[in-house]
Amino acid sequence: MALEQLSVGSTEGCIATGQHRSVIQSVGATRQLTAAESGSLCLFDRTAGNTYTLPTPVAGMYFDFAVSVSVTASDTHKLITKTVASEFLLGSVSMVTIATASPAGFSANGTNIVAVTMTATTAGGLLGGVMRVVAISATQWQVSGLLVGSGTIITPFATS
Q: In angstroms, rounded to a whole number, what is the distance separating the alpha carbons of residues 158 and 113?
């Protein structure tokens, strides 16, 4: 696919109508994302859970994630780095509970956290959660978001 270049060399600017981004959905249990899909919205859309594996990070790449279907109590929605020995998550997510909207915050240290693992209840796998990951180096993804849980919420960040 060739990308159209807008306003190259023009001082008058440009008009771009109808822009939208790719939406990745109904991918089954697992999906390896590619660098070419940077900028996509990836849906966690299976009650049995989805696992998205990020590509090798190149600074500036990014992906958005949205929980469009709550995962069942015994399954997980998961986001994981491609090379768990050398690619890590850095940043934080907030989480609220359905019943009370009580907030909590959780952070990833950028040195050993490689996954966001969301369960249906306590770790943010319920409908309405969103996250963005941005590659900030060849070894780190910056993560931010707001997840939805219930009960006594716990961190969704994991080392595996």
A: 6
Alpha-carbon distance 4 to 6, whole Å? 6
Does position 4 have pLDDT exceeding 70, yes or no? no
Summarize pLDDT for 56-67 with one digit per residue, the tens. Answer: 999 999 999 999
pLDDT over 60 (residue 6)? yes
Mean pLDDT of the chain: 91
- Top pLDDT among 103 and 118 is at 118
Is 139 within 8 Å of 96 (Cβ atoms)? no
